[in-house]
Amino acid sequence: MATSFNNAKFTVPVNDVEHQTTIATTTLELDETSKDFDYSKRSQWLRAAVLGANDGLVSTASLMMGVGAVKQDIKAMILTGFAGLVAGACSMAIGEFVSVYSQLDIQVAQLKRNRDQGNTGGVTEEKEEEEGLPSPIQAAAASALAFSLGAMVPLLAASFIRDYKIRLGVVVAAVTLALAVFGWLGAILGKAPVVRSAVRVLVGGWLAMAITFGLTKLIGSSGL
């Protein structure tokens, strides 16, 4: 009886430790899988959103600065910015839709080849791969919405200021602040150096506005 009691005493804790170790390992693996899965699903629309907002901001602001170089009328600047917003959002959405749809076709074809060759890792893994496929509609909508949000910054900045010089200054200031925010956000999402990313985005935006303003001013002054 003593021997049986001792055996039971030492066997139960060992099994319990093994059971707890198994649970901890499984939980860790599930956590890691969940993290990877969440990132893969979010990376698509995050990338489209950040790029779309930055493009909307820079392109619309550059258009407005270009028109402002030859016309001081606020109506002309606002109409130009609005046209750029609509045209850019449609262009971004269509481009993103076509691009992601091509990627989707490639991944679906690969899944079909794996299924035909019996190279799938099981029903669960195959289901996860299908759920992780990119969505062309989601990418297009995110890109168009982000572009529109970015383009609204210079539009709103110029909408209520009649004075020509002050209006240009406010547009540049608003765009500069937004560029810094987008550069910081892009660095956080991409785990890149924040200062370097923000400076790169700022310089790029300033160059785009300056070149557009300068060239349009040059062409306008030449009488073309």
Automatic annotation (TrEMBL):
TM regions (residue ranges): 76-94, 137-161, 168-189, 201-220
MF-aspect GO terms: iron ion sequestering activity; iron ion transmembrane transporter activity; manganese ion transmembrane transporter activity
UniProt keyword annotation of Oxidoreductase present: no
Topology class, membrane: Multi-pass membrane protein
Sorted UniProt keywords: Ion transport, Iron, Iron transport, Membrane, Transmembrane, Transmembrane helix, Transport, Vacuole
Compartments in which it is found: Vacuole membrane
Chief localisation class: membrane
The keyword Transmembrane helix appears for this protein: yes
Catalysis performed (reactions): Fe(2+)(in) = Fe(2+)(out)
InterPro entries from the UniProt entry: Ccc1_fam
Biological processes, Gene Ontology terms: intracellular manganese ion homeostasis
Function: Vacuolar Fe(2+) uptake transporter.
Entry's family note: Belongs to the CCC1 family.
PANTHER family the UniProt entry points to: FE(2+)/MN(2+) TRANSPORTER PCL1 (PTHR31851)
Protein name per Swiss-Prot or TrEMBL: Vacuolar iron transporter
